[in-house]
Design brief:
Layout lengths: L2 H9 L3 E3 L5 H7 L9 H18 L6 H15 L7 E3 L9 E3 L4 E3 L3 E4 L9 E7 L19 H11 L4 E5 L3 E6 L7 E6 H6 L1 H11 L1 H5 L7 H40 L10 H23 L8 H7 L5 H12 L1 H4 L4 H15 L1 E2 L4 E2 L34
Parallel strand pairs: 6-7
Antiparallel strand pairs: 1-9, 2-5, 3-4, 5-6, 7-8, 8-9, 10-11
Helix pairs in contact: 1-2, 3-4, 9-10
């Protein structure tokens, strides 16, 4: 298996929301793949997890076993040295946020700090634990503040300008990163997956074990990896923004040319602002669909029908095949790719109900066909369900 596929495999098995590690950075820091599989550790982990899971299935989960399970992961899986992994009185008030408006105080359960021979005041990781019954993405019952455990950790990190937080209920282990100033990253591993998909355990250890903080070169620490990834992702975002603006300009120029060929009837009473918004909306629809198709977020039956006749991610390859077989000139005389996009936009908006192909109606303003009816060759104030379309070529 190639190094890229190796990392893509485990990245697809963890929950990621917001910015995380880029593939290039992972390949650079782990050129030979993640830290090796440890059969003995997995064997011991399976035993510890089974005991913890059995206790949590009781009517009243055993708090002591919950604590022992968390300590086992911190100690045996991540290898945190107790002299560096502070808790209770050792934390004191080093990290504390008072929220009088909510009548709450935010304070972590553990802090991973630098050794004494380094800057011992520097906090490397903030850790907060919760009962197994507390969902990390839901409000805490009985609290006046509706913030989730994940939101609370983000507030702690922001208040002290810290980069990494770890929140867990024993089953879900959520890493929260503020490496990107514009967006917070949330990355979750699940304990049951460590045993079902051992590569996720290897990723968890490779990134969060004590060695990653103190036994590697400065530019290979987790913080540095996340910062480099944020810079790379910002570069990608900027490049995408430039490409979108360039594409919007091409769409506007093309529609204007077609409008001229139609004696200025196509854009009659359409302002420049509305034309720009329409072109930008087309691009946003495409970006949305590219992402949704890549992540397999579009629910459907009849997948091959969608890929062959609706998907935006397969359209370029299909057009290239036509050009290779019949020449580029043929594409200059064909308009069906634009018609297909309009059909896809309608399908996403209103759904498809056919014996061979089912697609739910997602609705939403973004894909509403009546927002810019001139894209379909219809006049303003017409309904796409009542007025026949005559799409611009």
């Amino acid at each position: 298996m190639s190094n890229a596929r190796h990392h893509l495999e485990w990245l697809n098995l963890v929950d990621i929301s917001g910015p995380f590690l880029s593939l290039n950075v992972l390949m650079e820091v782990f050129p030979n793949g993640l830290d090796p599989h440890q059969p003995e550790l997995v064997k011991q982990l399976r035993q510890a997890y089974s005991e913890w899971q059995a206790s949590q299935e009781q009517r009243v989960p055993d708090v002591t076993i919950q604590h022992l399970w968390l300590e086992y992961v911190f100690d045996k899986v991540l290898g945190f040295d107790k002299s560096l992994f502070l808790r209770d009185q050792a934390i004191a008030d080093r990290v504390k946020v008072e929220l009088p408006q909510h009548r709450e105080t935010l304070k972590p359960d553990y802090l991973l700090v630098n050794p004494k021979h380094q800057d011992s005041n520097k906090i490397r990781l903030v850790v907060q634990t919760y009962p197994s019954t507390q969902h990390l993405g839901k409000s805490i019952q009985g609290r006046s503040w509706s913030a989730t455990p994940a939101d609370r950790m983000r507030e702690l990190l922001k208040a002290y300008n810290l980069q990494l937080g770890l929140v867990t209920n024993g089953k879900q282990w959520m890493l929260i990163s503020t490496a990107n100033e514009e967006a917070t990253g949330y990355i979750s591993w699940y304990a049951n997956f460590w045993l079902e998909e051992p590569i996720t355990l290897r990723a968890f250890r490779s990134l969060l074990a004590q060695e990653r903080f103190f036994a590697v070169a400065e530019n290979n620490t987790l913080e540095a990896m996340l910062s480099r990834s944020a810079d790379a992702q910002q570069e990608v975002t900027n490049r995408l923004g430039y490409q979108v603006r360039e594409a919007v300009q091409i769409i506007i120029q093309t529609i204007d040319r077609i409008d001229k060929d139609r004696h200025r009837e196509l854009l009659f009473n359409i302002s420049e602002k509305e034309l720009y918004e329409a072109a930008l909306t087309v691009m946003m629809r495409l970006v949305f669909l590219f992402y949704a198709e890549e992540r397999e977020l579009i629910v459907m039956s009849g997948e091959s029908i969608y890929e062959d006749n609706y998907a935006v991610s397969t359209l370029r390859e299909q057009l290239r095949k036509v050009a290779d077989e019949h020449g580029e000139e043929l594409l200059e005389r064909r308009y069906d790719a634009w018609m297909r996009l309009l059909a896809t936009f309608r399908a996403v908006y209103d759904g498809v109900r056919h014996q061979d192909f089912q697609l739910p109606a997602y609705g939403g303003r973004l894909f509403d066909p009546d927002r810019f009816p001139f894209l379909e060759g219809r006049t303003s104030q017409t309904s796409w369900k009542q007025t026949r379309a005559n799409p611009i070529p």
